[in-house]
Design goal:
Strand content: 5-15%
Distance between the termini: 19 Å
Helix content: 40-55%
Radius of gyration: 17 Å
Number of strands: 7
Number of helices: 8
Order of helices and strands: EHEHHEHHEHEHEEH
Structural class: alpha/beta
Strand order of the largest sheet: 3-2-1-4-5
Length: 238
């Protein structure tokens, strides 16, 4: 295995846990973020804050935390219009998918990440995709990502691994994993600094973090936190 990894890092709860997961396993971890014209662009600020706090609070991880890369792919966001990029209501569409679904977003992210990883000599691409507690996005499913991994390796003649440590976890289990990786300090960091809310709300700080409390992302995050808290804030194997 390569001793380095590239984390697809949005600054949200899931990618923050994935960053900690990678820092526990790899000697060097770089991060990549994508500006695709998202309405909740505040996440681009959150990701900087999370990286800073991870380095400040966890010295053993700080020495492994490498460069951060931000890629401008707003032209993609303009083509793949959704409630995340346009001023539209968040609702279910006739396809049975939320209007927040950005067609092919994770596929595009992985293509750009793989091109960057190829240049940086990195084999492991780490993402927070999950098909257990999620909004039904088809590009979050493991079979989709397996197909994408094969395509990347064929098209670039490489041995990339698309690693998805949260794939089979509920949101409650993701909170439990965060505690296993970095204790209550990491949980507090994720609550305060990470951003999930589709509305970009950073006002009130709830026990589970900032957010409107009404969009699908907030509902998943809140429900997972409350389930985990009610179960005694247990840890799970990292």
């Amino acid at each position: 295995m390569s001793d380095s990894a590239l984390v697809l890092f949005s600054g949200g709860q899931d990618s923050s846990v994935c960053l900690a997961w990678a820092l526990e396993r790899y000697a060097r971890v770089e991060t990549v973020g994508f500006d695709y014209g998202q309405r909740h662009v505040v996440e681009m600020e959150a990701r900087v804050a999370v990286r800073h706090q991870v380095a400040a609070r966890f010295p053993h991880w700080a020495e492994r935390l490498g460069e951060d890369h931000v890629l401008d792919i707003r032209s993609f966001g303009a083509v793949a219009q959704s409630a995340l990029t346009d001023d539209r209501a968040i609702e279910m569409t006739e396809r049975g998918l939320p209007s927040t679904f950005v067609p092919g977003r994770n596929l595009v992210f992985l293509i750009y990440a793989a091109a960057l990883a190829d240049r940086r000599g990195i084999d492991a691409l780490v993402g927070g995709m999950c098909e257990t507690d999620y909004s039904g996005y088809p590009d979050c499913r493991r079979d989709t990502l397996d197909a994408m991994q094969s395509a990347l390796n064929l098209g670039m003649d490489r041995g990339f691994r698309v690693e998805t440590p949260l794939m089979t976890l509920t949101k409650a289990e993701t909170w439990a994993l965060a505690k296993a990786l970095g204790g209550e300090d990491l949980v507090d960091l994720i609550v305060v600094e990470s951003h999930t809310c589709y509305q970009g709300e950073r006002g009130e700080l709830h026990p589970w973090g900032h957010g409107c409390g009404e969009c699908p992302a907030c509902e998943l995050r809140q429900r997972g936190y409350e389930e985990w808290d009610a179960a005694g804030r247990k840890v799970m194997a990292a």
